[in-house]
């Protein structure tokens, strides 16, 4: 049921529930809000008549004494949902967005970029706030941050109880803090871990079903690793294990006795021919520190108008905790580039358009789409077996000239830029899904 | 030894200003290394700078100190990058990660608290069109959105010498005021410094009026000292990692103070302070807080 909260100043230690809306209550029950729980005397009120509080626009009025509101840290300017479970009255949901460490930048203005997620607020309600790992008062179990006021359509500063669910939106948090937050929320912190590219490769490689969808890959330990890899596969791509969005990438193509070295590490890509000695010197310098890069066979990718492309699939968990495909886009590199990232000059196309343009056929289009879907579901299911809590993944799939599919990357913090430009409805649906999932995890 | 990160060209000046005080502390541990962003060698975790201890001033290369006080504004991208590399090191504490704050953000923060909202006057991000449309700016104070240690407040009307276009281009916070205390046609502003001491708690360091001090030992001065400490505690809940800051207040005709500006380290505390006792107190707290952090 949907409720608004009114403070009763004249009484202590009490909650007044509308008689028509509740079936079984006890004289004394626990009121739960986020991770806070307070015992209170329960009385019934007839004020709301037959109202049931069936929507955000028609909530019931719940009265709670001021002392309990203060202990639970409930703000009375939001609309919540209430449910009764055993001897507990649960008010919520209380959802936290874990953002980064730049506290000085987190203003209401900065938070506006999150506001488009609240188009779905009328389905979840409750307290949704953003916080930095640096503004947690562990001793008093209080978090300082900004919450979204649905009626005023703005972000406001406040202090809050620990949330029921945390949606992790940043990956620079100290792992110890994450561990503590996982404990506090009883595992309801999702996107709990960001794996490196090499971990992904090593982990998925163990899966008999998926191994054939991985391009040959190895971790660069020294110059010999890369030399042997080039000797075996010819053209290769080098990727930093911990960076995303096309940052730090280099391509090496063997050209007779020399090597063409295309370096995307700076904003302006460089392209030069190196002798074997020069290449050895380059890899023995600091540029490619051991264990910081992987090297992969450069796949003979299918092309659209001479430009390579890949497929970005956003996989998210729904309210039944099942993975589903919430968006697919194809990202086409700008001409002469190997980088398909929109942020590096690429552009987006729908999958149908891309397949038609790349293969000039529609006969097996549905078959390819089905294979992509199955590969993504299998990858997500496999990653769930790591024991970490994932609910949103951006999977990059490559398709070669023979229509064979490869998993090239899985991002825990995918960008939705292409969707925003291509299809606003899909973009918004992607933005809403984690909120609905979080609401479900919180029990609503 | 503690570190002090300074602007280019200020290292030597600070070294000579601080030396007499550090010498008077006589403790060997009370030493500082002053350095610039350029002096930081992230890879080897070293800094090249000037060491000031009780024995004198000397150039040296030392290991990155465990506690670094930031005395600079940090605006260039490469500065921020180096700084963030230090921030990511678990065993190094940086005090005052930033010193220039977005005033709108601070106003919004204070307004969210019942306790502090009474010290915040109605405010808004200044809309340049209002100036074009409405020449009457009476009972309004304009403060730059990004605070600076030299408070550039405008009141009532655009003072001669300030181009209207310059005012339009810059971003300001417009604060609607009641009738306020003035000094030489400008709002009388009281700046109060607060700092963390040897027990890690905030304390008031002392006030400095931005104009001549005409109100001494009044009740509102006491209130400003107290409320500044409480405000620092509150703001730090949202923006942790501060060790030194200041707040500016204006006073209405009934002597009620109102918050108008906030900043981190203000070099005037060392450069323009005539009261040597305050500088000594400032340094004592600086060391006290650093040793408290080191444990």
The helix fraction of chain A, in percent, is 10-25%
The helix/strand order of chain B is: EHEEEEEHEHHEHEEHEEEEEHEEHH
* Mass-distribution shape of chain A: elongated
Q: Report the count of strand segments of chain A.
A: 25
**Major sheet of chain A: size, sense and barrel closure?**
7 strands, mixed, barrel
**Tally of DSSP helical segments of chain B:** 9
- Point out poorly predicted stretches of chain B: none
- What is the average per-residue confidence, as pLDDT of chain A, rounded to a whole number? 90
Q: Mean pLDDT of chain B, rounded to whole units?
A: 84
Give the largest interface pair and sizes.
A-B, 18 and 17 residues
Could you estimate the helical fraction of the residues of chain B in percent? 25-40%
Summarize this entry quickly.
The complex is a heterodimer of chains A (444) and B (295). By secondary structure, chain A is α+β, with helices and mostly antiparallel strands.
Overview of this protein structure:
The complex is a heterodimer of chains A (444) and B (295). By secondary structure, chain A is α+β, with helices and mostly antiparallel strands. Chain A has eleven helices and 25 strands. In chain A, the strands form four sheets. A seven-stranded mixed barrel of chain A has the order 1-5-2-4-3-7-6. Chain A has a six-stranded mixed β-sheet with strand order 11-10-9-8-12-13, with helices on both faces. The radius of gyration of chain A is 26 Å and the shape is elongated. The N and C termini of chain A lie close together (10 Å). The model of chain A has no long low-confidence stretch (mean pLDDT 90). Chain B is α+β, with helices and mostly antiparallel strands. Helices cover 32% and strands 29% of the residues of chain B. Chain B has helices at residues 11-25, 77-87, 103-111, 114-117, 128-133, 164-169, 219-238, 268-271, 276-294, and strands spanning 2-5, 32-35, 40-41, 46-53, 56-63, 67-70, 93-95, 123-125, 137-144, 154-156, 172-176, 182-183, 186-187, 189-196, 202-209, 244-251, 257-263. In chain B, the strands form four sheets. In chain B, strands 1, 2, 3, 4, 5, 6 and 7 form a seven-stranded mixed β-sheet that branches. Chain B has a four-stranded antiparallel β-sheet with strand order 8-11-9-10, with helices on one face. A four-stranded antiparallel β-sheet of chain B has the order 15-14-16-17. In chain B, helix 1 packs across helix 9 (276-294). Chain B is globular, with a radius of gyration of 20 Å.
């Amino acid at each position: 049921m949907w409720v608004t909260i009114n403070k009763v100043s004249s009484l202590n230690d009490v909650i007044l529930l509308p008689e028509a809306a509740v079936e079984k209550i006890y004289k004394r029950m626990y009121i739960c809000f986020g991770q806070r729980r307070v015992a209170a005397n329960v009385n019934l009120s007839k004020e709301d008549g037959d109202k049931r509080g069936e929507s955000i626009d028609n909530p019931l009025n719940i009265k709670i004494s001021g002392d309990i509101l203060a202990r639970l840290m409930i703000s009375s300017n939001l609309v919540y949902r209430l449910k009764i479970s055993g001897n507990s009255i649960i008010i919520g949901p209380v959802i936290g967005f874990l953002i980064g460490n730049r506290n000085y930048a987190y203003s209401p203005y900065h938070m506006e970029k999150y506001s488009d997620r609240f188009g779905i607020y009328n389905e979840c309600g409750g307290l949704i706030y953003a916080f930095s790992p640096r503004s947690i008062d562990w001793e008093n179990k209080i978090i300082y941050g900004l919450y979204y006021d649905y009626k005023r359509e703005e972000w406001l500063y406040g202090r809050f109880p620990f949330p029921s669910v945390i949606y992790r939106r940043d990956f620079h948090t100290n792992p110890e803090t994450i561990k503590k937050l996982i404990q506090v929320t009883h595992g309801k912190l999702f996107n709990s871990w960001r794996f490196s590219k090499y971990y992904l490769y090593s982990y998925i490689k163990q899966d008999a079903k998926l191994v054939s969808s991985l391009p040959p890959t190895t971790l660069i330990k020294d110059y010999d690793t890369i030399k042997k890899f080039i000797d075996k596969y010819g053209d290769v791509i080098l990727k930093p294990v911990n960076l995303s969005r096309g940052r730090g990438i280099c391509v090496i193509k063997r050209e007779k006795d020399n090597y063409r070295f295309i370096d995307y590490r700076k904003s302006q890509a460089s392209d030069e021919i190196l002798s074997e000695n020069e290449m050895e010197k380059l890899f023995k310098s600091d540029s490619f520190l051991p264990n910081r890069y992987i090297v992969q066979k450069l796949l003979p990718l299918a092309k659209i108008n001479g430009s390579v492309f890949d497929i970005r699939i956003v996989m998210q968990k729904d309210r039944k905790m099942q993975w589903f495909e919430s968006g697919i886009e194809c990202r086409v590199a700008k001409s002469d580039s190997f980088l398909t990232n929109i942020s590096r000059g690429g552009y987006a196309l729908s999958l149908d358009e891309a397949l038609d343009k790349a293969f000039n056929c529609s006969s097996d289009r549905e078959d390819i789409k089905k294979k992509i879907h199955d590969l993504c579901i299998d990858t997500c299911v496999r990653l769930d077996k790591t024991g970490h809590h994932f609910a949103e993944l951006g999977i990059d799939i490559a398709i070669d000239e023979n229509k064979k599919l490869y998993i090239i990357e899985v991002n825990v913090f995918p960008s939705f830029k292409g969707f925003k430009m291509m299809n606003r409805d899909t973009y918004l649906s992607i933005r809403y899904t984690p909120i609905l999932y979080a609401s479900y995890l919180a029990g609503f | 030894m503690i570190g002090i990160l300074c602007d280019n060209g200020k290292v030597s000046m600070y070294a000579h200003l601080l030396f007499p005080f550090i010498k008077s502390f006589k403790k060997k541990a009370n030493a500082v290394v002053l350095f610039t962003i350029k002096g930081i060698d992230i890879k080897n975790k070293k800094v090249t700078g000037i060491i000031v201890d009780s024995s004198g001033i000397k150039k040296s290369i030392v290991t990155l100190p465990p506690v670094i006080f930031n005395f600079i504004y940090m605006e260039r991208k490469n500065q921020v990058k180096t700084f963030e590399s230090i921030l990511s090191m678990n065993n190094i504490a940086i005090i005052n990660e930033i010193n220039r704050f977005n005033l709108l953000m601070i106003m919004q923060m204070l307004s969210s608290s019942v306790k502090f909202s009474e010290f915040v006057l109605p405010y808004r991000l200044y809309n340049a069109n209002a100036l074009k449309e409405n020449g009457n700016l009476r009972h309004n104070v304009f403060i730059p959105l990004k605070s600076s240690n030299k408070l550039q407040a405008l009141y009532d009307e655009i003072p001669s010498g300030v181009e209207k276009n310059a005012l339009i281009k810059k971003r300001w916070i417009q604060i609607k005021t009641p009738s306020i205390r003035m000094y030489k046609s400008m709002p009388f502003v009281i700046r109060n410094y607060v700092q963390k001491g040897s027990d890690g708690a905030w304390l008031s360091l002392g006030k400095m009026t931005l104009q001549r001090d005409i109100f001494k030992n009044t009740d509102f001065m006491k209130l400003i000292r107290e409320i500044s400490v409480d405000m620092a505690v509150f703001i730090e809940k949202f923006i942790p990692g501060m060790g030194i800051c200041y707040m500016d207040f204006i006073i209405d005709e009934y002597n009620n103070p109102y918050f108008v500006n906030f900043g981190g380290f203000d070099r005037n505390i060392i450069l323009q302070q005539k009261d040597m006792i305050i500088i000594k107190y400032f340094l004592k707290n600086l060391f006290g807080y650093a040793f408290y952090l080191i444990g």
